[in-house]
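Q: How would the structure tokens look for this protein?
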Amino acid sequence: MEYKDYRYLKFDRLGKGVLLIQINRPEVLNATNSKLHNELTYVWESVAKDELTNVVVITGMGDRAFSAGGDVELIEGMIGNPDEIQRVQREASDLVFNMLAFEKPVISAINGVAVGAGLAVALLADISVIRDDAKLTDGHTSLGVGAGDHAALIWPLLCGMSKAKYYLMTADFISGKEAERLGLVTFSRPQDEVLPSALGIAEELAKGSQPAIRGTKQALNGWLRQSAPIFENSLKMEMLGFLGSDISEGLSALKEKRAPKFPSAKLYWNNE
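A: Here is the predicted structure in token form.
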């Protein structure tokens, strides 16, 4: 696709080879519907062909969210629907592998809450700058599905297996400052410094040796590529969850803004 064909991604050429991409659904905290999920998956192929871009900065529109996870309609459409589950599984896989194959540097400016597919993009970026008081969570287990998307692939490398297991199994939220301390992100900054900091890094990379920078990125991405079977297994575990009974309770709890009572946890609830 050409940039004008994207509905929920906004593109701004900032000069000097830097392209700013904004996730543009601020009225719903930039949550991912089916169309946006598709655009986040395949935009990297479009930018790869853009000869006027050497570095990408991606952020969320507005000052509240980078991307607040999958919207309710997307989740509802997957529950018990093998065809939709397979479609989303293909896209989720392509999103990760397209970002790994994308040679140009990507910097995420995480300006607010980051969950789900949006978090995958934020953390798969080569360099990440997060707002100090932003919150992020993988969130899958709070819905009743396994931590698929990107998490099993990259979290153990970024923050270590012990922390990865804790945060991915509990779905606890992590602040921007704590995310930097854990190594999940590169830098944590005050709200008004997040995008300027990301753009400053982008300009520094844009004036460097492009073959050298891209070659370095691709070599380092080898650590992620060798873990591809782990990622693919985690994605299958996630998708199987949409055929189980816990996902319906997880979605109901999300809508009602309460803690879920998963059927699979009946040993806990029957003895409360």
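The radius of gyration is 18 Å.

Strands lie at 9-15, 18-23, 55-60, 65-68, 106-110, 113-115, 127-131, 135-137, 174-175, 187-189.

Upvote if useful.
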